[in-house]
Structures are given as C-alpha cells and as structure tokens.
Amino acid sequence: MKSLIKIIFLLCTCLAAFPLHAQENSDLKGTSCIPVRTVKESELAFKAGERMHFSLHYKWGAINSDVGTATVSLDSVRLNGHEAFLCRAHGRTTKLFDLFFKVREDFKSWFTRDGLKPLKFTRDTHEGGYEARNTYAYDWSQPDPCIVADVYSTSSGQRNLQLPLTPCTFDIPALFFYARNMDFDKVQPGRKYPMTFAIDDDVYNVYFILYGRETIKVKGLGSVKTIKFAAKLLEGEIFKGEEDMMIWVTDDENRLPVYFEAPLLVGFASGRLTGYEGLKHPFTSLVETKRK
Fold it and tell me: What is the pLDDT at residue 205?
C-alpha cells in the first residue's frame, strides 16, 4: 500500500509525464527538450498566485472512494538574487484513510520567472514508517553543470551526491509548469516526446504522447474541453504494463490538468481538479458548469 499511495501522489504532482526506467530509452536518443511556445514570464500559461486543488481516488473491489487530496500553489519570491517562482505541492491522505496508512508529501521547487530555469528543490515525504527527504541545488556555473543533492531515506540513509544536469533536466514541479507552455502547433499526435526529471538519487527519462481534443465531464466541475495525453506505463510492481496512464488538460491558455487515470496491478487510481484560484487566463474550456 505504501507504493500505491506514493505513486498516486507522484501522479498528481507530475500530471504531465511518468518515469520510465532510469537507463536511457532507445526511443529518446538524440532528442531535445519538448517544444514550448515561450518561457518568457509575460507569455507563460500561469502567474504567481495560482492555486490548484485535487482529489485522489482509488477503486478496487468493494473500495471505491477518495483517499487523498493535493494542493499545488505558485508564488513569486527572490532566491539568491534571482526573481523566482516558488511552487509548493502538498499531498495527504484523508482522515479516514489515515487510520489505515497515513501519508504526507511536500514538494517545493524554485525556478526563474523568466525562462523557468530550476534553482532549488526540496522533498519531504512521510509514508507510514517510511521517510524520504531531498534537497537539490542546481549548479549552472560549472563547465559541466550538476545537481548537488542531499538525499535521505529510511532504507538508504543519508547521502550526498552529484546528479547530471542539462537544460532539459527538471525536478517534478518545475517540469509540470514547463510542460504547460507546450507549443501544440509543433506537437505531432502519436509521437513520443521526451522529458527528464530528477528525484531522490537518480535522473529519469520520461515521455508523453498527444492524442487530441476531447470534451469530458469532471465531477464537481462540469463539462470541460480538454487536450488528451497518454504516458506509457511499464510493467512492474505497480502497473500492468498493458494500458496507458491518461491525462486531460484544459483546452485554453491555462493548460490546467483536470483529470488523470491509471490502471494498477491492484485496482485503479484517478485524480481530478476540484478547485482553483488566481488563474492568469479565463477558464474558457469550462463549457457547462455543474449545477449547485
């Protein structure tokens, strides 16, 4: 159950991609960053003050209920002389599910407001008796840039190491915000597009596949015009390896993730947007609001 809850919160935080094996995937060789329209602050899909709230759901046999919540917020700060965004992502199990397995996940990510260049990342995870902490400092000043990482887990103890860093390497929250500026005019349906992120003591290759536009009903919101993505799931201790994780983002300038779903070896996980504040653009993809 620990692995299940960890994956659910990671999905809600990431939403734009899912990790493959740590080794390089043959489909990703020779590729570059995902195509984005721009990463200039004035033209981003978001602004400081944005808040998103999610509900996380699990279905298996007689169990069919919400098991957790997550909040993602974005603020404007200064870090070491840089004008930066600070993203906070917090996930937790519900009070009822706390009785079975209590989880608290906290991610913080600092990245430049102009260019979305990652600067710092922290993670603080408590899953039952398991704990994990990350502190990353992105060192761009060296001839070979690197991530100076201080990582701890109850299974591996405390470690200090350096991880490889390229202009296409992000932490999970920074990757999520970077991907929201995707240039759909340059994205071909059905093609794999690579992304890279670091977490704990490794760097992972990830990819997404664009399927197209679709109007869906989201519980608590109503009917929403969306753009549908998939992330291929590899067979392992959590996933079947037979089906895709599906992700829907709003078909407007905000690119808000409104729903995702993923089949698991045991049961089915999903998440949905339940609330939002401080959007930069009008929520024009919401075509039919749920009646109160």
Answer: 75
Residue 233's contacts (CB-CB under 8 Å, 6 or more residues apart) are 18, 239, 240, 241, 243, 244, 245, 262, 263
**Which residues of the chain have a pLDDT value below 50?**
1-6, 8-9, 12-31, 233-243
Tens of pLDDT along 47-76?
999 999 999 998 888 888 998 999 999 999
Please report, as a single letter, which amino acid is at residue 107. Answer: F
Assign 225 to helix, strand or coil: strand
d(C-alpha 33, C-alpha 167), whole Å: 8
Q: In angstroms, how far is CA 215 from the centroid of its own chain? A: 22
Q: Is 100 exposed, middle or buried (0-12, 13-18, 19+ CB in 10 A)?
A: exposed
Any idea where the domains of the chain sit in the sequence?
A: 2-289
CB 179 within 8 A of CB 17: yes
Q: Which residues pair with 73 in a beta bridge?
A: 51, 88
Decide: 192 and 17 in contact? Cβ < 8 Å.
no
Sequence-distant (6+) residues with CB within 8 A of 279 are 46, 50, 254, 256
Residue 156 identity (one-letter amino acid): S
Helix 2-14 and helix 172-179, axial crossing angle in degrees, nearest 10: 40
pLDDT value, residue 231: 72
